[in-house]
Each structure stands twice: as structure tokens, then as C-alpha cells.
Amino acid sequence: ELLALVEDQEEDQEDSEKPDRSRRPLPGPGGVTQEVVERKRAETPLEASRLRYLWVTHLAAQVWCEQKMVYQREHPELGSPENAALLDLGKSIHLARELEDHDLVPICATSQEDSWAIKLLNLLLMIPALQAGQRVREFPVFGVLEGVFVVGVIDQLGYTPKGELQLNELKTRKEASMPSQAQKKKDGFQVSLYKCLFDAMVRGCLGPESFIRHLQLRPEQPLGPQVREQALHAGFTACRFQDLVELAFLNLTFSDLPPIDRLQVEYVHQETNASLGTQVVAYEEETVKAEGRYFLAYWKGQRDPKGVEVEEAWKCRHCAYSEVCRWRMARAGSPTARIRQKTTRG
Ligand code: SF4
């Protein structure tokens, strides 16, 4: 039976974002000193956020509206409470699916290195299951894109009747209908980025040194007692963090796992758990890489965040930040917007 290890008090989960320490003032009177403004200007958004890596979901959120993603990080208190409740509901549906396939073993992490050791142990447990043709859930993926470490978790990997390795991403929806093209575009980018990271991992593109350096982890750090015990239970002897990193990278590189053949997003109605349909995503490597490069340019401070284009201004109507959004205000006042408005009205 498959087991999945979960950190007892996982603080750093995808989709459960904590307030960003790079919080910036919203428009209007604010008590920010010139010194603070200057310091913020000198730091890139990635440095200011104090994140050592980005989640795939950060970049996917930029597909919908980059400015909104920035507000969500800097001012989560202005977000809609209804969205938080929907996120919780979505998480419980994911958990129920996960428990269909394996039991969860809570592990106490005593350091940052332990948190990553738990992810690596899960990888070590899932590689042989995949090699044996089984389905696995919550597969961790990571890699370096444009010099930035990016991390994600694949909902499900399994094989089709034709023997293709298929990624299945579960999305839960409040409405009992398939999503808009704009939502599908965001989800398509997310699963394409997962494939990009997974394929690079099984090709051995990322080395243990690069992994440790990007995450600023201590290779000599002794593993906590519960992590050591679980490693032993899984048949691995590891005392220091580096032991486990080397084991994980060796196993990945020599696993002979194929690249992902098929990308699929499955939509489920939150209230009834009924399937609403699936979207098969065509993978275009160059497009995904170019989009990733563009989104990461914001994090690296190479350009300002961007809101939605006039054609997608309908997104602003449902946005919790529309009252404070600088981008929307600037667009409403721009001559182009006024001309377009006038033309539309005839
Ligand atoms: Fe983006 Fe519009 Fe929301 Fe501003 S109001 S954050 S442009 S969706």
C-alpha cells in the first residue's frame, strides 16, 4: 500500500499563501516614509517577498491577471472571504481523492531541510510505484527556470490504456459548468509548466548541488528523528540532508521514467462532486517557456506588473481589488479606453 508523508504543520503549501512581507501601500493616504519606498524600489519583487522559490501557481495566477496576483500577495486581507471558503472546499475534495490512493503519515519536521527531506522521501516512494505502472498522487516537481527555482505538486500521474504517462489536474468549480476560455488558458499553462519541470527532472537536468544552492539549504544538517525513521522504513539509510538529496537525484536520473505524454485537466462541481468534463491540453514547449520567461521578468524586477487588457476588462467586474486597482484606474482614464468606450457606444 502506498503511503504519503505530510509535514505535521506545513506552513509553506501551494495555494495557501501567507501575507507577503513585501507589502506595498495602496493608493490613497498612507504612512510610508521615503526611505521605505526607496528600499522597496532597490529590491526585485522576488527579493522583497523573501521567497527562495516560486510556486507554479504564482506563475499560473499571472496568466489570469498579474496585477491581481500581486495584490493577493501584498494585501490578502482585501481578498474575498467567499474565495477563501471555496479554496477550503476545493482542498477537502483533493484530500478525499488523495486518501483513495494512499494513507497520510504525519511527520514532525525539525528544520527547513526536514521539510524538503519529506518532499524527497515522497519522490523516492513514488518513483517505484510509477515504474510499476501504478497511479500516484501529489507528485512534487521542481527545477530552475530563468535562474529562479520553481516548485509544484502534480495532482495525479498514471498511465492510459495505451500506456501513455498522463498528468491529471483536478479543478473544482462552484458553478456546475465548464470554465471560460480564459480559465482554461490559465489551467493549461499550469499543467504545461508541470510537464516542463517533470520532464527536466527525469532527464537529469537538475543536479543536487544546484538544488541545495538555490534553496539555500544546509547539506550537513542532520535529519530529524521522524524523517530518519521514515527513510529507514522505506529502505533508505540517510543521516544528513545531503544523503537523502543524493539518493533522490540518483533514483530520479536512473529511473528511466518517460516524459509526460498527455496533459489533462478535470473539472468537478464542488457541491455535488459531479464531473463537469475534461480539457486535454496540447503542450507547446517553446510557448510555455516564453510565457514563463515573461512572467519571471516581473519577479526579477525587469518590468512592472501588468493588469488585464481592455478586451479582458470583464475580469475586473468580479475582482475583489477593482476599487483599489491602479491599473484599472489608469486604464479608465486613458484616452484609448475612452475612445474605445465611445466607439462601443456608437
Ligand atoms: Fe486585474 Fe482588473 Fe483586478 Fe485590477 S481590477 S487586479 S486589472 S482583474
Can you give keywords for this protein?
346 residues, alpha/beta, Lambda Exonuclease, Chain A, 2 domains, six-stranded mixed sheet, two-stranded parallel ribbon, 47% helix, globular, disordered C terminus, binds iron/sulfur cluster
List the helices and strands and how they pair.
Layout: E1 2-7, H1 34-42, H2 45-49, E2 54-55, H3 56-74, H4 81-101, E3 102-107, H5 112-131, E4 136-145, E5 148-159, E6 165-173, H6 181-202, H7 208-215, H8 225-233, H9 241-253, E7 262-269, E8 275-281, H10 285-299, H11 314-317, H12 326-333, H13 335-345
Parallel strand pairs: 1-3, 2-5, 6-7
Antiparallel strand pairs: 4-5, 5-6, 7-8
Helix pairs in contact: 3-6, 5-9, 6-10
The structure holds iron/sulfur cluster.
> Major sheet, described briefly?
6 strands, mixed
What is the fold-level CATH name, i.e. the topology of the largest domain? Lambda Exonuclease, Chain A
Distance between the termini: 66 Å
Helix content: 40-55%
Ions and ligands: iron/sulfur cluster
Rg for CA atoms: 21 Å
What overall geometry do the principal axes of the alpha carbons give? Answer: globular
Strand content: 15-25%
> What is the strand tally?
8
Order of helices and strands: EHHEHHEHEEEHHHHEEHHHH
Going by CATH, the architecture of the largest domain would be Alpha-Beta Complex
Per CATH, the class of the largest domain reads Alpha Beta
Output the structural class: alpha/beta
Q: Stretches where pLDDT falls below 50 for ≥5 residues? A: 15-22, 337-346
